Amino acid sequence: MKPATLTAITIVIAGLAAWIVPPLANAVNRSRQMKTMGEMRSWATYLEAYPHIRKHPALNDAWGHRFRVVYSPSSYTITSLGRDGIAERKITLGLGITSFDCDIVYSDGSFIQWPRGM
After folding, report:
1. DSSP class per residue in 18-71
2. How far is CA 47 from CA 60, 63, 103, in A?
3. Cα–Cα distance, 17 to 47 (Å, whole number)
4. Pair 33, 118: CB distance under 8 Å
């Protein structure tokens, strides 16, 4: 093959990759959010029924970061630190988050910060 043909093929492949990879990464992170939210609901069920349930929920979210669980006899909060694993300084109550790096927070039976569109 001529160098010009190889260059053209490389450009086409790079263009396809640039078109395909971002939506694929988005879909992977969206599924991790959904899995994490399901695990947080499992934690809530566990905390609400403790000590009657013996099986402990997953310790990590879908990104591999530990859940932060704060529990007292009258209240609980479960937090996933999102894709970046860094705790946010401020929680936006009742608003959907738009970044995969944002924390997901479940407290006393409902999400107080969650991904937009879910």
Report:
1. HHHHHHHHHHHHHHHHHHHHHHHHHHHHHHHHTTS--SPPPSB-TTSPBPEEEE
2. 16, 22, 20
3. 44
4. yes
Q: Which has the closest alpha carbon to 61: 45, 77, 41, 37? A: 37
Query: For position 21, what pLDDT does the model report?
Result: 63
Interstrand relation of 104-107 and 110-115 (parallel, antiparallel or unpaired): antiparallel
- Cβ atoms 77, 94 nearer than 8 A: no
Q: What six digits make up the tokens of 59?
A: 């310790």
In this structure, what token pair is assigned to residue 58? Answer: 């997953």
Whether the predicted model's global pTM rises above the 0.85 cut = no
Cite the beta strand spans of 23-84 per DSSP E: 68-72, 75-80
Write out residues in the chain with pLDDT < 70, as ranges: 1-4, 6, 8, 12, 14-21, 118
Q: How far is CA 111 from the centre of its chain?
A: 13
Contacts of range 82-89, beta carbons closer than 8 Å, 24 or more positions apart: 83/29, 83/32
